[in-house]
């Protein structure tokens, strides 16, 4: 994150080339495990009052977003704004260039909720809050209860809505564009725990409570009032967890539902979590502390309940694998349990337990795992790698037919690669990779469709290995102190010699856990951490630039009491910790502070009510003297400040001579020098001095020369510094100035060479710390100081100005931030460089604040500015963070096909990268057209645009921040696998998973469409007679049981592609798999739904048996008997058929169980039955019934109507497109893309269909009817009769206009590399 410049004469403005401003403190239980991974792979999690955004692939910090304080913070001072929920928007990269810069439609929006009940919508690109959502904002009562945020979830209706849990039991739906609350639901006395969105229907979401209450809701058209459909359910099978919750409620003093804190604050160690299965629709996976439950939303019942395994800690969270039927559960003790679904059931069995916190190299006690997330973007890229690089993906498309594969004994091995990211409370982010040797998948036989239609299942004995791929180390614990190195010219290197030690861009931080974190400000990261003390570090100082001295103390509880003081010197180069001043017995007084000289040669140890000790910090530290004076403050002199150039250097030389001549005598307290000196130590000619103040207000300066301490007699101030005004509490000393602050807020400064002095009152509380800013040659002021007050605020004053108080800079950068410690960063070497102030906040964050002070006397012309560039160990390859125009340019280039050699930065990398293309070496560096892959596809859009876009992306290519090596290799492996593969890759890179799945399924959909066209002649055959229908029905019934098991293991499709299912065997196989899950369910409603499933798959024999099992006293006995007779009897004549249709229509009108559709099935009216099911909203059941009984155009009509519903109601354009293609409605698909304002996708869709259809038709031995726009000479060949030449021309022209507009926007945008 970039820092804001700070000037007294200009408003704060954010600079893209300024310093990074924030390192967050570690997360805690108070953050509620808030973490989320965006579709593009960005990780965001709550840490204190900040949101940390990181890149899990490169393990680098992207930025930190601090939550500002609430306007009502004074009334609720006890509520710190802890971040308790974060959620990325599912919004994809906007292709509508007319409103691409609107923050309200940005794909980088992040919703953040805090403990004060506020929700902030952040725009990651601008690092600004674009909208506030607050239920309490309109309340006029200052004592109104603030409902903290428990969880957040984005919902898609007509627009993107945000569902939020406020407090313990309030569910609200917000309009993310206007900030208006659309709908509320009070679930009292429940404790709502989490909320999740359905991956199959983005309007649908579920909310779970700690007591097992489940609320299923669907936002119907904006969410106003009654436009939210609700279903209240209760989870069964959580007996043990219910007992634990009752105990916690009794123990908690605020256990009533009327209290304002959310569940995470009331019961921080009691977790109830749910997630939707990404493979099976209507299936919820739920964990309570001691149970793992599978719940069926369609049946409203629990399918299975698994107890907590013996030896495992309580459940904390769960995640489904996006591809395999695996479930990952996180436990409170930091372990990860892996569960596999038992084949044929919705029951999960434990197949492995892994450690998320290695026992080697971790602190004691072991840090706790707070959150874990899976990277869906990695899974989508793995999908592309799996399906596009497999030879059968392209070979199967060239076959004559695409038929369901036969069973085969041949198997091919597919590796399991799942990326998980865990977050621990010691400030570390862990990147894990789960792998297995192989996953069995039936291999395709010759002439079969691509492998996406076959299952992937784990072997029962398959071992799963977890590997740590990377770690990002941020601040490890609560900060207690801060130290910045400021070595003078007398500081020498630790290796010895008299070479001066240069300033280093390092900051040392002491923590509550006893560790020292070393922060490299140029990289904005913790470079190393030392575990030094067992207690909190109370003080920390640099000794030069490579050693640190720190102290801690602990109180002795034994007889006699006292304190155990511990002093340690830490060497940064060797990592060794060497304690000194070791005592056998406890001391009477604890150490109060440490003061190290700027050279690092001397150290003052201040005790509470005990003499001050002076130490020489040699290899083996030696105590020089003990000063028994009542000191209040002591400060060493800083390196001398150079005089302004116009004043010359003579005054500085004379001043130093005067200091040397005046150092002749000593006070009575120091009348005798130390006699216990070592003769082996050489005499040191360099002297250093420190200033002090006594309890009675007396001031003084001592000089340490070698081993002697003597009084330095300065020129006393002309005015008296009496102590009646207040005790001196802070001091800073840089020759020739001594600055002092007292507990009344007065600041005095005194020139020790001239005796001049002055003072003013800050009108603030007492002063705790004063720090001189670093001065370089050419500076106009040498008296700029930072002052820290006892109220944890700070200000900056310029003592060289005529009125320091009037020109003071207060604290505008971090409002509401309490400051524990501050110091200046000392690596400034030019006067044009900004001053940087280091601040350790009370929220355990480290902030760097840039201070630019513009002098009115300076020249009005522009000054060259020396910038400190941020260092990254590897480039941050996140195209999603590019300016929107540049991101769209990269997406276009990847779609059109750029040669992999374009990503090569120099010739050195081409030797190790296998995707180097030699022919591009001979091309001119300015001839960028040679980098584009030559294509035989019809031209679409403007042919000049790709070269212009490559020029725009050239700065990113030179920086190497477009794609990392792994993804470049993946792109190189599929660049020549066809346009659909490139389109899927481009979509996955930008986190558009649904679009990537669409491109992967497009060849299969076109294959299915051509198969229907080839069998069109069979549709004209008259319907079989009744006797033939009877024979077919009996054959189907007899063979159903035999084939059910085979289809379950072969036709079911796993992974994210499952929601794109359209083939008859896939839909029928999915439905057949579900039947076995519900075999043991009883009750009238469950029986009705089971009968419906059996009729849908054509298993009439089992349906009749189930209907006849209805007891006579049941309310459904007569309807069930009627259906049983109709289904088991032979098909009657036309009069009987008409009567059944009338009865069915009446039953549909009055019976919610849709019994009439079963009667229609009994008389063979499957098309009408599907229409009635679709009218009733049973779209999946209608598709299953059609897949079982309908063929050709009848089946296509069902798919096309389903696609219309998915597009208009569920707002899932990619799933609708694949259904349109499977139904042969390419014109409707193009219309949907045009209405969605995606001209690039429409053009790429035409190219992909042309390429796939051309490949299939060129290799086919039988002619297939096709439409080539208007005649055979047209460039596009598309398998549809509904497309006109004007439609194709309009798509191309629209795409060309889009390209030209994009080029103009790219030229106007400035490249951004971070």
UniProtKB/TrEMBL annotation:
Residues 647-681 have a biased composition (Polar residues). It holds the Pfam family TPR_WDR11. Residues 647-682 are annotated as: Disordered. Residues 902-1306 form the WDR11 TPR domain. It comes from the Eukaryota. Residues 25-441 form the WDR11 first beta-propeller domain. This is WD40. GO terms for cellular component: cytoplasm. InterPro entries: Beta-prop_WDR11_1st, Beta-prop_WDR11_2nd, Quinoprotein_ADH-like_sf, TPR_WDR11, WD40/YVTN_repeat-like_dom_sf, WDR11. Residues 474-874 form the WDR11 second beta-propeller domain.
């Amino acid at each position: 994150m970039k820092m804001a410049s700070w000037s007294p004469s200009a408003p704060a403005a954010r600079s893209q080339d300024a310093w990074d401003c924030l390192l967050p403190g570690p997360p805690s239980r108070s953050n509620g495990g808030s973490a989320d991974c965006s579709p593009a792979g960005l990780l965001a999690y709550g840490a204190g009052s900040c949101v940390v955004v990181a890149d899990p692939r490169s393990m680098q910090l992207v930025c930190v977003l601090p939550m500002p304080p609430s306007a009502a913070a004074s009334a609720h001072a006890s509520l710190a704004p802890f971040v308790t929920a974060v959620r990325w928007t599912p919004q994809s990269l906007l292709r509508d260039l007319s409103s691409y810069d609107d923050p309200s439609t940005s794909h980088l929006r992040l919703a953040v909720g805090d403990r004060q009940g506020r929700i902030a919508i952040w725009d990651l690109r601008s690092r600004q809050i674009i909208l506030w959502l607050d239920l309490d904002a309109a309340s006029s009562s200052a004592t109104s209860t603030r409902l903290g945020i428990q969880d957040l979830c984005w919902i898609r209706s007509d627009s993107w809505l945000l569902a939020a849990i406020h407090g313990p039991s309030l569910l609200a739906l917000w309009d993310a564009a206007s900030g208006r609350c659309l709908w509320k639901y009070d679930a009292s006395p429940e404790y709502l725990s989490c909320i999740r969105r359905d991956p199959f229907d983005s309007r649908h979401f579920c909310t779970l409570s700690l007591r097992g209450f489940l609320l299923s809701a669907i936002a119907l058209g904006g969410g106003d009032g009654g436009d939210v459909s609700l279903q209240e359910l209760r989870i069964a099978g959580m007996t043990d967890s219910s007992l634990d919750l009752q105990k916690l409620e009794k123990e908690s003093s605020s256990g009533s539902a009327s209290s304002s804190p959310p569940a995470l604050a009331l019961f921080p160690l009691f977790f109830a979590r749910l997630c939707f299965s990404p493979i099976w629709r209507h299936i919820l996976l739920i964990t309570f502390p001691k149970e793992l439950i599978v719940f069926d939303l369609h049946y409203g019942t629990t399918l299975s309940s698994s107890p907590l395994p013996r030896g495992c800690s309580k459940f904390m969270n769960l995640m489904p694998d996006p591809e395999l039927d695996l479930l990952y559960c996180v436990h409170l003790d930091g372990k990860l349990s892996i569960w596999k679904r038992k084949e044929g059931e919705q029951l999960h069995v434990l197949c492995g337990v892994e450690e998320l916190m290695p026992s080697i190299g971790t602190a004691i006690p072991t840090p706790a795992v707070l959150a874990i997330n899976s990277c869906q973007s990695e899974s989508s890229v793995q999908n592309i790698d799996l399906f596009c690089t497999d030879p059968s993906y392209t070979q199967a498309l060239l076959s004559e037919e695409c038929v369901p594969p036969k069973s085969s004994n041949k198997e091919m091995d597919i590796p399991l690669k799942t990326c998980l990211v865990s977050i621990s409370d010691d400030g570390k982010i862990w990147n894990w990779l789960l792998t297995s040797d192989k996953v069995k998948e039936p291999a395709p036989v010759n002439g079969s469709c691509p492998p996406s239609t076959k299952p992937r299942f784990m072997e029962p004995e398959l071992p799963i290995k977890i590997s740590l791929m990377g770690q990002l180390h941020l601040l490890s614990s609560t900060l207690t102190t801060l130290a910045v190195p400021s070595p003078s010219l007398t500081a020498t290197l630790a290796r010895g010699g008299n070479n001066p030690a240069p300033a280093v861009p390092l900051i040392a931080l002491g923590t509550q856990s006893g560790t020292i974190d070393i922060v490299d400000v140029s990289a904005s990261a913790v470079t190393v951490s030392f575990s030094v003390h067992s207690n909190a570090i109370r003080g920390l100082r640099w000794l030069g630039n490579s050693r640190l001295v720190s102290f801690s103390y602990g109180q002795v509880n034994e007889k006699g009491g006292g304190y155990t003081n511990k002093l340690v010197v830490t060497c940064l180069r060797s990592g060794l910790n060497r304690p000194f001043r070791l005592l056998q017995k406890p001391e009477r007084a604890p150490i109060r502070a440490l003061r190290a000289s700027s050279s690092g040669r001397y150290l003052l140890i201040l005790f509470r009510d005990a003499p001050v000790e002076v130490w020489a910090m040699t290899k083996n530290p030696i105590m020089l003297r003990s000063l028994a004076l009542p000191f209040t403050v002591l400060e060493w002199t800083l390196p001398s400040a150079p005089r302004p150039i116009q004043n010359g250097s003579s005054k500085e030389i004379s001043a130093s001579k005067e200091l040397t001549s005046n150092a002749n005598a000593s006070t009575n307290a120091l009348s005798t020098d130390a006699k216990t000196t070592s003769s082996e130590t050489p005499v040191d000619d360099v002297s250093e001095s420190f200033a002090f103040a006594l309890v009675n207000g007396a001031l003084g300066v001592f000089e340490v020369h070698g081993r002697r301490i003597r009084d330095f007699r300065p020129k006393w101030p002309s005015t008296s510094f009496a102590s009646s005004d207040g005790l001196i509490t802070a001091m800073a000393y840089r020759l020739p100035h001594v600055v002092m602050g007292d507990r009344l807020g007065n600041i005095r400064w005194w020139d020790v060479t001239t005796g001049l002095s002055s003072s003013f009152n800050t009108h603030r509380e007492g002063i705790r710390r004063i720090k001189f800013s670093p001065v370089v040659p050419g500076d106009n002021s040498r008296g700029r100081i930072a002052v820290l007050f006892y109220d944890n605020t700070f200000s900056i004053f310029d003592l060289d100005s005529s009125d320091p108080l009037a020109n003071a800079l207060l604290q505008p950068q971090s409002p509401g931030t309490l400051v524990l410690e501050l110091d200046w960063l000392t690596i400034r070497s030019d006067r044009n460089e900004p001053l940087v102030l280091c601040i350790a906040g009370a929220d355990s964050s480290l902030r760097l604040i840039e201070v630019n002070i513009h002098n009115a006397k300076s020249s009005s012309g522009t000054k060259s500015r020396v910038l400190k560039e941020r260092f990254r160990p590897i480039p941050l390859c996140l195209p999603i963070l590019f300016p929107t125009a540049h991101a769209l340019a990269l997406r276009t280039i990847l779609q059109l096909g750029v040669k992999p050699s374009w990503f090569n930065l120099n010739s050195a990398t081409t030797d190790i990268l296998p995707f180097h293309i030699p022919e591009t070496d001979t091309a001119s560096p300015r001839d960028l057209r040679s980098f584009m892959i030559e294509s035989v596809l019809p031209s679409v859009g403007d042919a000049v645009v790709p070269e212009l876009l490559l020029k725009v992306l050239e700065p990113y290519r030179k920086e190497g921040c477009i794609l990392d090596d792994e993804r470049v290799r993946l792109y190189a492996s599929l660049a020549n696998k066809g346009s659909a593969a490139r389109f899927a890759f481009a979509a996955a890179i930008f986190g558009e998973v649904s679009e990537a799945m669409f491109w992967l399924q497009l060849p299969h959909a076109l294959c299915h469409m051509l198969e229907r066209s080839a069998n069109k002649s069979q549709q004209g055959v008259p319907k079989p007679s009744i006797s033939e229908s009877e024979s077919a029905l009996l054959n189907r019934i007899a063979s159903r049981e035999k084939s059910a098991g085979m289809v379950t293991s072969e036709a079911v499709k796993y992974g994210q592609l499952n929601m794109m299912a359209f083939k008859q065997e896939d839909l029928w196989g999915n439905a057949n798999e579900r039947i076995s899950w519900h075999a043991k369910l009883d009750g009238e409603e469950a029986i009705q739904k089971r009968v419906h499933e059996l009729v849908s798959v054509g298993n009439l024999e089992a349906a009749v048996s189930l209907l006849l099992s209805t007891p006579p006293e049941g309310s459904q006995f007569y309807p069930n008997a009627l259906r049983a007779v109709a289904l088991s009897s032979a098909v009657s004549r036309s009069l009987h058929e008409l009567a059944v249709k009338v009865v069915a229509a009446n039953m549909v009108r009055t019976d919610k169980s849709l019994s009439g559709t079963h009667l229609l099935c009994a008389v063979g009216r499957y098309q009408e039955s599907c229409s009635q099911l679709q009218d009733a909203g049973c779209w999946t059941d209608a598709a299953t019934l059609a897949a079982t009984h309908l063929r050709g155009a009848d089946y296509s009509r069902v798919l096309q109507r389903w696609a219309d519903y998915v597009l208009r109601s569920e707002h899932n354009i990619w799933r609708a497109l694949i259904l349109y293609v499977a139904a042969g409605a390419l014109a409707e698909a193009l219309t949907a893309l045009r209405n969605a304002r995606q001209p690039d996708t429409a053009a790429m869709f035409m190219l992909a269909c042309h390429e796939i259809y051309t490949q299939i038709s060129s290799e086919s031995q039988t002619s297939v009817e096709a439409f080539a726009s208007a005649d055979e000479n047209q460039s596009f060949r598309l398998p549809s009769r509904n497309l006109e030449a004007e439609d194709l021309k309009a798509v191309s022209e629209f795409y060309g206009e889009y390209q030209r507009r994009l080029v103009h926007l790219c030229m106007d945008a400035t490249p951004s590399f971070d």
